[in-house]
Specification:
Layout (H helix, E strand, L loop, with lengths): L2 E5 L5 H13 L5 H11 L5 H4 L2 E6 L5 E10 L2 E9 L8 H15 L4 E5 L5 H6 L3 E6 L4 E6 L5 H7 L4 E4 L2 H6 L11 H14 L10 E5 L8 H9 L5 E3 L9 H6 L2 H9 L4 E3 L4 H7 L13 H11 L11 E4 L2 H13 L4 E4 L9 E4 L5 H7 L5 E5 L5 E3 L3 E3 L8 E8 L5 E12 L2 E7 L6 H20 L4 E9 L5 E7 L4 H16 L4 E9 L6 H17 L3 E6 L9 E8 L2 H21 L5
Parallel strand pairs: 4-5, 8-9, 8-11, 9-10
Antiparallel strand pairs: 1-2, 2-3, 3-4, 5-7, 6-7, 12-15, 13-14, 13-15, 16-17, 18-19, 18-21, 19-20, 20-23, 21-22, 23-25, 24-25
């Protein structure tokens, strides 16, 4: 069901009053009770503006599905009405109305709202963060909603507006020199293009509240509706299956003048996965030449060395550019002979692609076969032992390196905004997901990452860059952090921050969020079966106090099927339990199709 919120009209006062009474009657009240409530629940034409009444409307039919009101004067007000048509209960209409009222209240300066709730709706409000308050009665229990201020970075990122999201993952990366389609690695490039098409689905979560999403691949019917229900969004316009073509996703949009005009007519900010010349043309806000220079791992390492003297908690790996695989092999062997591990990487790459750790000569041959001919970068491996000229060797044993990330953004005026830090889940060198919560990154490490990440942002702003960025780190012995790369685009961890911001605003409290970008499925699922399974899984997670948001729904019928999800909860134990539930359910799919014994 496609839903939008609009202001109520004086002419529909009678119809909305009837909707309210039908909604109240749904809970089994007798005629005498409803007659006693009629005067209080009647909406009059003069109320529409004074009570700030809004309507949830079915976009297809124009029918009113629900009604809500924000009453009083800031800083304390009342959620006076929130009623939905009985046949829509459980379909997310009430949650969208509630979120709209909270958004409006924040914009008007309200700090808290009082809700005199029907007893049957108390569970609904409690699940969205409302707490019992003094007053009220058994017929109308009183609740209170505390409105935490909107995070400064959210306002800086979107201007408080909805957005148009472009899933141009492959397009962004291609501008840095993809391998030739005729090269020996062409088959891998095709696999990479397919993977980037799946990954582009994350662009739908690239802001807390999009209005439209443009994707290269075709997504399952019902996916955006499930996102809307879980994140209390109004209808999101979806333009999928555009492909990538020779020029990328945005070129495909520009090649369709009617579509480009339609998107521009929305009058909303464009948020690409990453900036390209084509996204600058579409949005009218191109970046200056050289603004993306620090997407290069070589340029980033140079910048890290320049900034490190002012940051005692930072240690920067040394790095050597080499022209060929043979030159890389010689350098790695020479380092291995003195007991030094190496990391060999391409200058550009995403998600750990093109990056390999070599800690012994024996491991070198398969690594070299997997690398392009060159040029390459060889970097010292910050492992269980690190030495520098100032302090000598540090043979401190510790658990495998913890991969951390700092996320921030540079606004249109060049101001730098810290978003936060997260713990990344990295298998080998491949990124798998991230966790955003206060305990995910130790306080001292978070402080170091925030200060250094902010300093990087200032340099990015000076170079002309505008938009989202992150700095990835690996933990080094004696508590220091080693920065490894800068990403001048949205990333996997960035969507965790977006979802957290949205849930904190619409459901209250401080959510912990974990992204699982690749949950293997025990069986291949066609789209319809996948969406039915995801809907059931969201309900099972909700019953444990967790929220599931499906993030990558397009790989469930691949030869090696998988799905991407985000999980959120207000306690670490619930988050861990939700992950176990999801992984077990995904694995158990194989049993549904196993031959009978």
């Amino acid at each position: 069901m496609r839903t939008r919120i609009r202001y109520a009209r004086p002419a529909e006062a009678e119809a909305l009053s009837a909707l309210v009474l039908r909604s109240k009657a749904h809970w089994g009240y007798d005629d005498a009770f409803l007659a006693a409530c009629r005067e209080e629940l009647t909406i009059r034409a003069a109320d529409m503006t004074v009570r700030r009444i809004v309507v949830a409307e079915d976009e297809a039919s124009g029918a009113a599905l629900g009604v809500a009101s924000l009453e009083g004067a800031a800083p304390e007000g009342t959620l006076g009405l929130l009623f939905v048509e009985p046949h829509t209960i459980g379909r997310g209409i009430g949650r969208v109305l509630y979120a709209h009222v909270l958004d409006a209240a924040r914009e008007l300066g309200f700090k808290r709202l009082t809700v005199d709730s029907d007893p049957h709706a108390v569970g609904f409000y409690r699940a969205l963060g409302a707490r019992p308050a003094p007053g009220g009665s058994s017929e109308l229990p009183r609740l209170q909603v505390e409105l935490a201020p909107r995070a400064g970075w959210v306002r800086a990122w979107t201007g408080g507006r909805r957005t148009v999201q472009l899933g141009n993952v492959a397009e962004f990366q291609a501008q840095f020199g993809p391998a030739s389609p005729s090269s020996p690695s062409a088959r891998l490039n095709e696999a990479g293009l397919r993977a980037s098409t799946h990954y582009s689905c994350l662009a739908a979560l690239g802001t807390p509240y999009p209005a439209a999403v443009v994707l290269p691949g075709t997504v399952p019917v019902g996916w955006t509706e499930l996102l809307c229900r879980q994140l209390a969004w109004e209808t999101v316009e979806l333009y999928d299956g555009l492909g990538t073509g020779a020029g990328g996703l945005t070129a495909e949009v520009l090649a369709r003048p009617a579509l480009a005009r339609q998107l521009r007519a929305l009058g909303l900010p464009f948020v690409p996965w990453g900036h390209t010349p084509a996204t600058g043309e579409l949005s009218g806000a191109p970046l200056p030449p050289g603004a993306l220079r620090y997407e290069s791992k070589r340029a980033a390492n140079t910048l890290f060395h320049q900034l490190a003297p002012g940051h005692p908690g930072i240690v920067v790996p040394r790095q050597w550019p080499v022209p060929t695989r043979l030159a890389a092999a010689r350098l790695i062997v020479a380092r291995a002979r003195v007991g030094a591990g190496s990391v060999v990487k391409t200058e550009h790459g995403v998600g750990g692609s093109g990056t390999h750790v070599v800690t012994s000569v024996r491991a070198l041959p398969p690594v070299l076969r997997a690398l392009p001919r060159g040029p390459l970068l060889v970097e010292e491996y910050i492992g269980a032992e690190y030495a520098d000229a100032a302090t000598g060797p540090h043979p401190t044993p510790y658990t495998p390196p913890r991969d951390l990330t700092y996320d921030g953004l540079v606004d249109a005026a060049g101001g730098v905004h810290d978003v936060g830090t997260a713990r990344m889940d990295v298998a080998g060198t491949a990124y798998q997901g991230a966790t955003v919560d206060p305990g995910a990154v130790p306080d001292e490490a978070a402080s170091v990452a925030l200060r250094f990440g902010h300093a990087v942002g200032l340099r990015l702003a000076a170079s002309g860059y505008r938009g989202w960025y992150d700095v990835d780190f690996v933990t080094a012995p004696v508590g220091r952090l080693a920065p490894t790369e800068i990403n001048l685009r949205l990333t996997g961890p960035s969507v965790a921050f977006m979802v957290k911001a949205r849930l904190d605003e619409t459901r209250g409290g401080a959510h912990l969020v974990r992204t699982l970008d690749r949950v293997p499925l025990g069986a291949r699922l066609p789209d319809a079966e996948l969406m039915a399974w995801l809907a059931e899984l969201t309900a099972r997670c909700a019953s444990t106090g967790a929220v599931l948001v499906p993030s990558i729904p397009t790989a469930a019928f691949d030869p090696a099927p998988y799905v991407g999800v985000l999980l959120a909860a207000r306690a670490p134990g619930r988050l861990d339990a939700a992950e176990t539930l999801v992984r077990t359910a995904a694995e158990d799919l194989g049993g549904l199709f196993a031959p009978a014994r």
